## 1
Amino acid sequence: RAKELGGDNYKFYTRAMREQLGERVQIESALRRALERHEFVLYYQPQVDIGTGRIVGMEALIRWQHPEMGMVAPARFIPLAEETGMILQMGAWVLRSACQQLRTWQCEGRRNLRVAVNVSARQMAEQGFVGSVADTLGEAGIEPCCLELELTESLVMNDVEHAVTVMHELKRLGVKLAIDDFGTGYSSLAHLKRFAIDVLKIDQAFVRDLTVDPDDAAIVTTIIALAANLNLEVISEGVETLDQLSFLREHGCHQMQGYYFSRPVPAVAFGAVLAENEAQLAAGGTVPLGVA
Ligand code: C2E
Ligand code: MG
Ligand code: MG
Ligand code: MG
């Protein structure tokens, strides 16, 4: 197509293409450098069982501690990491760090904790992904059932047949699988039936206006019912207020994650969040109040 536009345009087009390529190489090397210089850190956000008031797990969320830009949110670099393929090394690092951190907390006596890790499409598609998950678990010394992998609908729909195969292999390994941002993607109920998943994570977009928007309320209660009927666990993300919490509890969703409980925090601070939760439970509390 560029050639049809004539000589000058052709040159312009190829230069633009070259620049784009250069930019990609730059981004890729910036991400690689960041990995080598240990500029990535994991933050952890608690997942709470509102029935018992106990923190049952946490989601690991990556941050880039950039020397000049400061703390960079994943939305700003995950898509680039996916595009350049750096997500493979980054994802492997996330998985290893999260498993090692969980092991540390387990050794400190925090049993029955699980860690949720986000997985991207490129990782799922990679040959040997399941084997590398098994190796990482073995090296960290944690039980497969303590690891939950969060997959998105779009990731799975990318290549349904392959995803279904990998999900069943992961399931056989014993790890838990969750569908993240559930309700925002394109998977059909027919697909859902074939996925070897354990958990539906209700997207925060539906939770936000839950108590004022009847449509969101209907969607959320429908997802909760769907999970119950399919024998899946259900967890809500983005819970910020007591009203949202009450609605969700009344409608049968007992696992929650959101700023109401805690923002994602570094590992050391998360240790304090866990200690606080233990203290609240010991004092007879059931609903952990905001600690953020
Ligand atoms: P996600 O997996 O759906 O993670 C939930 C996001 O919602 C997180 O944003 C979290 O900080 C935010 N959040 C939690 N509670 C609340 C709340 O009450 N209110 C609001 N408004 N937001 C809340 P974050 O950490 O910026 O991550 C954004 C996305 O980046 C994640 O969405 C996930 O898709 C991706 N991501 C993060 N870490 C990783 C990673 O290690 N690997 C991969 N592949 N993706 C990651
Ligand atoms: Mg997630
Ligand atoms: Mg999510
Ligand atoms: Mg999200």
## 2
Amino acid sequence: MPRVNKICCIGAGYVGGPTCAVIALKCPHIRVTIVDLNQARIDAWNSPDFHLPIYEPGLEDVVRKARGRNLFFSSDVDKGIQEADLIFVSVNTPTKKSGVGAGSAADLNYVELATRRIAAIATSSKIVVEKSTVPCRTAESMRIILEANSKPNTRFDILSNPEFLAEGTAIKDLFAPDRVLIGSLQTSEGKEACQALCEVYRNWVPNDKILTVGLWSSELSKLAANAMLAQRISSINALSAICEATGANIDEVAHSIGQDSRIGSKFLRASVGFGGSCFQKDILNLVYLSESLNLKEVAEYWKQVVTMNEYQKRRFSKRVVDTLFNTITGKRIAVLGFAFKADTGDTRESAAITLIRDFQEERALVNIYDPQVEHSQIWSDLSEASPSMPLETIQRQVSICSSALEACRNAEAVVIATEWAEFKTIDWQSVYAGMNKPAFVFDGRLLVNAEELRAIGFKVAVIGRGERL
Ligand code: NAD
Ligand code: UDX
């Protein structure tokens, strides 16, 4: 069995960075080099004050312990490839924006470029591991590219090892994963390569949590897991609409159904809509795959999960407008939270972006506060959401504030878009004193104690609750 001494990870993003930093921490005998074409990102990973390019609880500690010991970050992709005996491909696979499959298929350009680079550079045999989330049978395309371009006496074994970490809990998830999934060809070489990667994970993951399966099952399992998780959220959000219309309470409904051990209690939190770089992209990817296989009904079934999510976001912003006497023109709305979930600075597909765009279209004034998201990121997201609006126009309507209290000053309404823990301890008395009256709170994250806020004087609308304001 080949033994892994040197690992290279292509892609120093939200997955490649934390995943391989944890491998380095847990496997001091393995030299891990994480490479990326983006020099600024690499510089941030190497920054002397550990101002890392992504915010993730516990990550800095891991990098502090391993960086310079057996963990290295570099923009020299070729050297990383050349030296390694195992290479993770952890590049981005966004939804295609143009061409065949635009709007649903995965853009595999980055995976292909990384694969071609491996083929061009490698002069010794490598285990190549798909870490990126890819459509079923991508490993086959990688194998064909690698074999067509390989040098004599160089063989490539391809594995699929999808990543299941969630942002905000990445380090916790990586330290104690529910499972590690490794897919390989069921040939003797494929199984040997699979065992070599299993050995790496066995340094800290119990053996019974390391699942080995066929390549295509592994690729499909990743899409399936994300589709089923997102489906749970769309299901609970669909029920939240019924709750609002009937007076039922979504928290009580979620708790009641979650007690059924077949359903389980996790991931049933109604919200303003799921965001993040994965759910929508991976479901659309599954939809495209189903359509390509002529499975129209299957494609439609999964597509509905995304449709319901869009509906949830629209429904929430409409509720804000309806409640504020059918107009928010010229009214100031404080949006608390811009990240797609708490404990991350990531804003990809964040529901806050859609809400703020809707408020802008109604010509409201918007104050934003988020404890982690960079201001430049907020401006870039809002510009992308309203391409016909020049940035100066956006900046006349939108302000970024440095605290929740500041964002709420002189506002008519507060919208909670991200469930940051600090929003639970806001001094609501002071917020109320500084707001125009009647003062509204719209809780899109089931975060506040509505009764306490009502006692202060607020009018409170909570997702999934149809009670009086
Ligand atoms: P990301 O955009 O944060 O990082 C990808 C990095 O790859 C970028 O820094 C980019 O510069 C680099 N890159 C692209 N092509 C390259 C090349 N040819 N050579 C060197 N570097 C290159 O993306 P991410 O969020 O880390 O996601 C990576 C993959 O993991 C995606 O397929 C995604 O679906 C999957 N995934 C993401 C998450 C998540 O929570 N973000 C979780 C599980 C799986
Ligand atoms: C997800 C998967 O959970 C992870 O396994 C996969 O590797 C990547 O995609 P991530 O997108 O980082 O992870 O975060 P997740 O916790 O799944 O949340 C996704 C979105 O759903 C967030 O906007 C979150 O706020 C929302 N959500 C989550 C809900 O609205 N309700 C819930 O009960 C759970």
